[in-house]
Design a protein that fits this description.
binds calcium ion, alpha/beta, single chain, binds beta-D-ribofuranose, two-stranded antiparallel sheet, Inosine-uridine Nucleoside N-ribohydrolase, Chain A, 8-stranded mixed beta sheet
């Protein structure tokens, strides 16, 4: 079977880093388009270049939009990912620069050059995808699949706005544009992420057994681990890694529900929430395959290989 061809929109980000390592180990990376999110765009672009060097890869890196489409964000996620987004390790300046083309334009061009071939994996606020869609609404017709990490499908989010998940809450208007435009996509939400954590000791054993990628991940993960320990959170949860597993191998999904999902744009307490029409009351097209369970052993095997600990 030929390897999946991935176009990855990302805001690295510790769990983005693991997801990109998985993509490199199990698929072909056509390009990284980079969004602002976990930290500012200057950091996320540099982190994407750092990851390219770590992997000895040559895929292009395209910088995207430095802010959400409409409103300034309420929060970033530096308190989890580190001020620089990769655990404040202090990596050297990456070798090659980012490419000059804007991320949204690169997404349009690459999907025109390779219609029907590329799986779009969205691991960040959806600003770049929304811009691309506004420029060219036919984008969904050229994408093989879209997999989105985002949302909290029963309202248990991870941001200051209780029901909102970070990627959707950072740029709700962008998520609205994407959710309205794509007739079908896979949605890997924060609540599924929490159900698919790894045991701390088991994960540490993979880090110890792995190669330079495991060493790198152990370094960048330290800040997030300290944060989790202080907040009494146990186990290793990696939202973007779970979404990447679904992008690499859709057959890993063992339970899902396909429903209409919309984004709340106005709520006083709910802006950025993903509203799921669980009972099909609205008669809207059910566009999101909501991933509820994956085969955890296969997910673990994918992560181990990405760390060089297979
Ligand atoms: C998502 O938000 C970011 O902090 C992570 O990188 C992930 O994409 C989880 O809510
Ligand atoms: Ca991310």
């Amino acid at each position: 079977m030929s390897k999946p061809q991935l176009l990855i929109d990302t805001d690295p980000g510790v769990d983005d880093a693991l997801a990109i390592m998985m993509a490199h180990a199990h698929a072909d990376i056509a390009a990284l388009s980079v969004a602002a999110g976990n930290v500012g765009l200057g950091h996320t672009v540099r982190n994407a270049r750092t990851l390219r060097d770590l992997l000895g890869a040559t895929f292009p890196v395209y910088a995207g939009c430095p802010s959400p489409l409409v409103r300034a964000p309420d929060e970033d996620a530096a308190f989890v990912h580190g001020m620089d987004g990769l655990g404040d390790v202090g990596f050297p300046e990456p070798k090659a620069a980012a490419d000059a083309e804007a991320a949204a334009l690169a997404l349009l061009r690459l999907t025109r050059e390779r219609p029907g071939e590329l799986t779009l994996v969205a691991l960040a606020p959806l600003t770049n995808l929304a811009l691309a869609l506004r420029l060219d609404p036919t984008l969904p017709q050229r994408v093989k699949r879209l997999v989105v990490m985002g949302g909290a499908v029963t309202g248990r989010g991870n941001t200051g706005k209780v029901p909102a998940e970070f990627n959707i809450g950072f740029d709700p208007e962008a998520a609205h544009v994407v959710f309205e435009a794509f007739p079908a996509f896979d949605l890997v939400d924060w609540e599924a992420t929490l159900r698919h954590g790894f045991d701390d000791a088991e994960f540490d054993a993979w880090l110890a057994a792995g190669d330079r990628r495991a060493e790198f991940f152990g370094q960048v993960f330290r800040t997030a681990r300290d944060y989790n320990a202080k907040h009494d959170r146990h186990g290793v949860v990696a939202a973007d890694a779970l979404a990447m597993a679904v992008a690499i191998d859709p057959a890993i999904v063992t339970r899902s529900e396909t429903r209409a999902v919309a984004v709340e744009l106005d709520g006083r307490l709910t802006r950025g929430a993903t509203v799921v029409d669980w009972a099909n009351r609205l008669g809207r097209p059910a566009q999101a395959r909501i991933v509820l369970e994956v085969d955890q052993a296969r997910f673990a095997a994918m992560v181990r290989k990405a760390l060089g600990a297979a």
